[in-house]
Structure formats: C-alpha cells, structure tokens
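Hey, does this match?
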Amino acid sequence: MTYELYYWDGLPGRGEFVRLALEQAGADYIDVARGQDGTDRMLEIMEDDRADAPFAPPFLKDGDRIVSQTANILFYLGPRLGLAPADEYERHRLNGLQMTMADMVAEAHDTHHPVATGLYYEDQKPEAKRRAADFRTARIPKFLDYFERILTANPAGPKHIVGEALTYGDLSLHHLLEGLRYAFPKAMLAYGDRWPHLDALRGHVSDLPNIAAYRASDRRIPFNESCIFRHYPELDGVETGDER
C-alpha cells in the first residue's frame, strides 16, 4: 500500500526526516501537499473530529491509520522499512535519540522565532540575535558532543548511531547536520574537526545511492528561509548592519 505523507508544501522541515526514510527504503509514497488540492486535504484531516486527528504535520497515513509526530512516525515506519533494529530495547533507544534530535531541531527553529511563532522574524530580530548566539556557542556543542559520544560508544563501531546497520537515526542525524551547516555555516566551520564521527556519518549517508538520487531529484525541497533551518547571516555571528 502507498504511504501518504502530509507536510507543508515548499518546506523540507520536519517532514524531511520522514522523506529520507521513505526514499532510502524505496517505499511507495505520495507527498500529498505537493499535489493538487493537497494542502486542503491535509487541513481537512487536521480539522476533522476523528479521534486520531493530528494536531499538526507531519503526519503519515497508512491505509486507515494516521500516525503523527516525526519521531513517532519514524518509530512506526522503521521496522516496516528495514530501518530499525530487531531488538525491542534498541528500537526504543533509537526512538529516544530521535526525540533528542527533535529537541535540537526545536531549538534551531527558536533562534529565528524566540518570542512567538506568530510574529515575523523581522519583528523579533534583537531577541533572535541573542538567542542564536547562545545556540551557536552553547547548544550546538552540547548536542553534537553528545551525539559524537554516542557514536563513539557504539559497540558495533561509530559508523551508525545504533547497532551495525543503517537506521532512520543515521538518516536523521545527516539531515540535522545538513540543516545546521545551512543555517550556521560560519559557526559550524569554526568547530573544525571536533566531531569526526558525525562528519563521517554525514558523508556516508550522502553517498548512499538512494539518498544521492533523491538529493539530485526535484522531489527534494531545498532549505529555504520559510523553514526550520534558516540562514540569516546576522544569526551566524556575521555583522550585517541589518540587525534591527
């Protein structure tokens, strides 16, 4: 059966973590909001009175089932796509790591929307500049030091975040690192080779044939300034004269 993925059209966002898993597995799926009337269909499901109506995208429709929240969707899809460990404890450990990535994604988003999501970035620039400085100098190393440590401690070797085979966690770490490099290129460059295992994982995932083909296709939506990871030079520690 074909999976239906629902996320905002024109944004990689949180939906991209799910897309990468579907693409790597070669699964049949439809990115619904990118089709005709797709956004209207998505909103209808969200506004329905059904007990499993999702609060927000991304969500996945698998037949009559609706699964929402990025980490939860991947926890559901992982065993079905061959992208999760067979051991139950390891699957839950992977889910915990995915939720930690979700925490970092939320903090990355809040660098440009620290006051309110309903306000434009331009309405909160001073606060954003202060929040981004803390994210660059304190939160990026705190999170990435942790993930580097988890990779180093993997008994099967540091190629994968859990176990000895590729999982959706590796794909998600790759996207997280790509997003940080897009939004904060100066800051990430300044950290140099502090995270060698993370850098190696990012390169390994980029070279996977299915992922490389996806990244070269028009199915992939590039990072942009309407999304979670946004590149504003002033938030990367670059003085632009346009901070107000």
